Amino acid sequence: MPLNSPISEAPKMAIILLLLLVPYALGAEYSSNYCGSNKTTYTLNSTYYFNLLELLSLISPDHALTIDLFSNQTVGKSPPDVAYGLYLCRADKLANDCRNCLITASKEIAKACPNQKHAIRWSDDCMLRYSNDSFFSKMEVDPFRYECNKRNVSSLDGERKHFEKVVVGMMEELVIEASNHSKKYAYKEAMFNSTQKVFGLVQCTEDLSGSECDRCLRTHMNRAVNEFCGGKIGGRLLTPSCNLRYEFYEFYKFHTSDDEPRAPSPPESSKHRDKDEIVTEQSLQIDFKTIEAATRNFHEDNKVGEGGFGGVYEGVLPNGRKIAVKRLSKGSGQGAQEFKNEVRLLAKLQHRNLVRLLGFCLEAEEKILIYEYVPNKSLDYFLFDPTKQGQLDWTTRCKIIGGIARGMLYLHEDSRLRIIHRDLKASNILLDEEMNAKISDFGMARIFCVNQTQARTNRIVGTFGYMSPEYAMHGKFSTQSDVFSFGVLVLEIISGKRNNEFCHVGFSGDLLCYAWDQWRKETPLEFIDPSLAKSIAASEIIRFMNIGLLCVQKRVERRPSMTTVVSMLNSYSIALPLPQKPPFFVSKTSKGAESNPSTTQSMVWSVDHSPISQVHPR
């Protein structure tokens, strides 16, 4: 049959029936790994090992509403220990799809290629690649992988040749379009016959020039269609620098103009997620000897803080990176369960306003967490010290409040999980070199299902002065419990005073009641930290005070969500409701509480099971 002749009706009907009766899809989701040579390996706790750990944490995008389809990163300064990394998400993928693919790829590549300096992982939605040799802006077509649809076009030779001609012609056009596109991708459809379309997509890494993208795609294009997947109704070819795919069905779904990056998707429903998903231990575990060396055997001079569960030490890894080491004391309240909880949560959470977990150690009786080093200590170090309060002008305090709010919004709404922190307080807010807030200490955090609104516990954990009344007295907690703690923090930041140690001449209540009293008397400036009294932003400070009081309302339903809080902080066009009187302050002598000399440390105690309706102010 001539290639340009019409196809007879009988074979066409056979093809249509075949396509109706069987699925087009290739089957299970595709993935493949390339692990480099056995001659290029690294050892555990080497400089390259730590550079690679940091690289993989950087290369997986965080919560940002929009992310690029392509990104590359470099960690380290001295070859051959520099880690170069790159990812490429499929051009039609939404932000959440891209992010989830990269999180999975980071875990799977560590399992598939342990100790390999060079590795590539291809999957349906993304490619992840790293090496100790720079490969940026270099066109590479080997190694390559291909996979073919299991369905044949037809047993007739003429129809197969016609199909291959249609696909190659479509691919030729796609190569030209992708090579001239700023994002280096193109997609289109072509008619195989009067009823059946063929769909194609090609893509290159964005660091290639147009001519390199063209050359990459053409290198294996004809072989993919005519040889590798000859006679099949679909196939894909993947190389380190480009990829192509064609199918009888529309395997891609573009949501906006193809000239624009993909729009973000809403957060993924957590009901299909596994609560116990843990990042591969090998990719995060650091041996005790390395930590000992980094902290000079936990020398007292390296100690930068003491938390409720143990000491925090400054350290330096073999690659020169500074770290913070949280060593849980053997007699601390945090056992193996809380430790595993913190590792499990932090390994999955990535946000600029959350402290980043770099690794952990669980050997014998040692339980150690390794975090990014945050140089400016914690918020309480500045906020409650009269000699240091002056370093926190209103612009800085406003930035800190905004950072905490965005971090909490991520935990409650935008992360892959819904997290209730349960111990939000000034000492758990770390400050980086630019005084950006980073929420820390997730040992008491709890995961909620996406449709879950509250939970109850008999084991109350938290810090006096920051807990909502329904949680402190009855063990009921929700996202609104965290909102209450956030409101306390806002009022502390504005006043420069600690709620659970508040004392004011002529006033017998706590900080929240004092804020309400000054608000009711229309003298809010009396509540503000004296160092801010001359601030030109008095109206803004009063607005933030209003928001803080709304967050500490006694009735849960009267408190705003963190989504609303962030909107109120960012937009002055939003009219604020008037607050009502906040609840009583739960003192450290509350029924069932374990005594502790420090009112700022996290506590554990039993719960009063009486109905909430019986709770009355003191």
Automatic annotation (TrEMBL):
Membrane topology: Single-pass membrane protein
InterPro entries: GNK2, GNK2_sf, Kinase-like_dom_sf, Prot_kinase_dom, Protein_kinase_ATP_BS, Ser-Thr/Tyr_kinase_cat_dom, Ser/Thr_kinase_AS
Localization in the cell: Membrane
Catalytic activity: L-threonyl-[protein] + ATP = O-phospho-L-threonyl-[protein] + ADP + H(+); L-seryl-[protein] + ATP = O-phospho-L-seryl-[protein] + ADP + H(+)
All copies of domain Protein kinase, residue ranges: 298-585
One Pfam family recorded for the sequence: PK_Tyr_Ser-Thr
Ranges of residues in domain Gnk2-homologous: 30-135, 141-251
This protein's UniProt keywords: ATP-binding, Glycoprotein, Kinase, Membrane, Nucleotide-binding, Phosphoprotein, Receptor, Repeat, Serine/threonine-protein kinase, Signal, Transferase, Transmembrane, Transmembrane helix
Signal peptide location: 1-27
GO cellular component terms given for this protein: plasma membrane
One Gene Ontology term from the biological process aspect of the record: response to stress
Keyword Transmembrane in record: yes
Protein name: Uncharacterized protein
Source species of the chain: Centaurea solstitialis
